[in-house]
Amino acid sequence: MKKIVLICGMVLLSMSITWSQKTEKPGEQHIPLIGSEAPSFEANSTNGKIVFPDDFGDSWKIILSHPKDHTPVCSSELLEIAYQQEDFSRLNTKLILLSTDNIDSHVNWKMALEQIAFKGRDPVKINLPLVEDESHVISTKYGMNDQGKNIGKSIRGVFFVDPENKIRAFYFYPNEVGRNINEIKRTLVALQTHYGNERVVLPVNWQPGEDVMLSYLEESELAQLGKPGSKLYSLIWFMNYMKTK
């Protein structure tokens, strides 16, 4: 009887291992978390072949992904990004636009968009690289494939990568909701502000140019609180601010 139980147990264990091996998906995706290394990749783009992050030097990088070319919401986003591309350049930031269509489709999409006068503005040239990811290799590396009913058809992530190639922030949108490019830019400036001084943190609804918070005050700064001309002020002992103007 013991032999029969042992044999049955071994068979079940073998079946379990076999099932696990069959159901394990190669290249299963995982979202790279804040503070982790941004996954590297090589790909074709409308600006030629790119190698990430090597081709981007010590700049900040923002990766914005799209599921398909010629889709309405993504087209509106790409146009708005194009109108603000010089703003991002002045912030030492390079944008990488990813879509799972092929390079020929990218070229046609770009040409079509460059003919549109969007929101009453003159047509604009799109100088940013539209990266090909037809095999979903890059979107899988960044965990951007939607696992809902439209599996593999969402891929609408935003990743902020600092000059040291570390993920600093990310968020995802569904197909039906357009991203706010001004919020992307605000997040970028906030991250850069903290990057320049790790004690600086940004309060709710913060906008560039507004006062910032300090995670803690040094002893010499505590002595400055409330004094005329001081840039430091406090609402309560755990909410300390620094004027930026």
Describe the model.
- With 245 residues, the protein is α+β, with helices and mostly antiparallel strands.
- The chain is 31% helix and 20% strand.
- It contains seven helices and eleven strands.
- A five-stranded mixed β-sheet has the order 5-4-3-6-7. Strands 8-9-11-10 form a four-stranded antiparallel β-sheet.
- The longest helix has 22 residues, at 2-23.
- It is elongated.
Reconstruct the topology from this structure:
Blueprint: H1 2-23, E1 41-43, E2 50-52, E3 60-66, H2 72-83, H3 85-90, E4 93-99, H4 103-113, E5 130-132, H5 137-141, E6 157-161, E7 167-172, H6 181-196, E8 200-201, E9 212-214, H7 219-222, E10 232-236, E11 239-242
Parallel strand pairs: 3-4, 4-5
Antiparallel strand pairs: 1-2, 3-6, 6-7, 8-9, 9-11, 10-11
Brief account:
With 245 residues, the chain is an alpha+beta fold.
Estimated radius of gyration: 24 Å
Strand content: 15-25%
Oligomer: single chain
Tally of DSSP β-strands: 11
Give the overall shape, derived from the CA principal axes: elongated
Distance between the termini: 84 Å
Give the uncertain stretches in residue-range form.
1-26
Strand arrangement across the biggest beta sheet = 5-4-3-6-7
The average pLDDT value, as a whole number, equals 88
Structural class: alpha+beta
Separate helix tally: 7
Largest pleated sheet: 5 strands, mixed
| Order of SSEs | HEEEHHEHEHEEHEEHEE
